Amino acid sequence: MKRNSRNALLAAGAALLTLTAVTGCGSGDGAQNGTRAAAQPVVNASSGGSAAPAETASTGEVSVHADNSLGDIVVDGKGMTVYVYAKDTKPGASNCEGQCAAQWPPVPAGDAKAAAGVNQELLGSVTRPDGSRQLTLAGRPLYYYAKDTKPGDVAGQGVKGVWYASAPDGWKAGVKRPALGVLNDPKLGKVLQDKDGRTLYLFTKDEPWPMKTACGATCLQKWTPTAPVSAADATAAGLEPKALFTFTTPNGTSQEAFNCWPGYTFKGDSRPGDTNGENVGGVWFGIKQEIVVDHGRTVPAAKG
Predict the structure, then answer these.
(1) Which of 1, 185, 192, 271 is the most buried (most CB within 10 A)?
(2) Coil, helix or strand for 57?
(3) Which residues does UniProt assign to the signal peptide (predicted)?
(4) Under a CB-based contact definition with an 8 Å cutoff, are residues 105 and 143 in contact?
(5) Distance, CA of 89 to CA of 83 (rounded, Å)
(6) How are beta strands 61-67 and 113-114 bridged, if at all?
């Protein structure tokens, strides 16, 4: 009888060990029995912080958070930082799969909506190989970082020189912007930005050749002439340098023009990625990156 009881205890212990082996933590690459385990949230119990969301989590309202060192960054509905990957260079696709996606879980697109500081029109999605939809901002796929354990964490900033918290327009937060940038707007296409990420516009009442501005004192209260940029700046933004035509305004300042159309920024745009000046009065339009250089005969306007 005692022998039978001892054998029963040994059998129960073996079963417990087997159960622990099956249900416990997997290997470092997150795979067991040839099947990759889903990336799990990381919780810092001591801090009381929330988990970095898994792919099935709710993203909620995407908004802007002012970080003390990085400036404006994008966060999800729980305040978790979202990141962009510099190696995502192919439109409509993510270059982060497998173990990369375990460390950098894709932000789910499902219920995401834009809140304060984010332009709703910049939100989109890409379909991943497993069929899930990943949220994009101005065409850039967004990710979480597994080592961020609570709202406001930015542990992923600058990792390996390719991961950055997302700015409101999908640019790399904390990284200096070029003098002439490009915003990939799902509605307008690729439009130009200045060194602060503000969208550049043209005024169809201006005269392109010879260049003459129709934006007088009242107009200039809302619209600011674009500062000159260099040929190198144009090349870096994907423009032909000969598309630039700098001219002197009536008040003696220099203003950059694109295919002879003077450029402006709109004071109603408060953050990078804003396009509130588009189609104002039916005469203001974003300036396209793709410009035909013909001394103003073609209007390089992006019309949504």
Answers:
(1) 192
(2) coil
(3) 1-23
(4) yes
(5) 15
(6) parallel
**199 in the same domain as 294:** yes
pLDDT value of residue 10? 41
Assigned token pair, 63:
């908004």
Residue 112 is encoded by which pair of tokens?
Answer: 């995401």
Q: Is residue 36 part of a domain?
A: no
**Beta strands 133-137 and 123-127, pairing class:** antiparallel
- Cα separation, 158 vs 91, whole angstroms: 22
Tens of pLDDT, residue by residue over 69-101, are: 999 999 999 999 999 999 999 888 999 999 999
First and final CA of the chain: distance in angstroms? 85
Token readout for 172 is 């790399």
Q: pTM (2 decimals)?
A: 0.79
By CB atoms closer than 10 A (0-12, 13-18, 19+), residue 182 is: buried
What is the DSSP annotation of 14-37? HHHHHHHHHHS---TTSEETTEEP
| Assigned token pair, 91 | 């439109």
Contact yes or no for 138/183 (Cβ under 8 A): yes
Structural domain count of the chain? 2
With pLDDT > 70 as the criterion, what percentage of the chain qualifies? 81
Q: With contact defined as beta carbons under 8 Å apart, do 138 and 146 qualify?
A: no
Kindly state the DSSP code that residue 74 receives in the 8-state scheme: E
CB atoms within 10 A of CB 190: 17
Residue 120 in tokens: 């709703």
Residue appearing with tokens 């799990």: 40
Residues 195 and 151 in one domain: no
Structural contact between residues 203 and 278, judged by C-beta atoms closer than 8 angstroms: no
The length of the chain in residues reads: 304
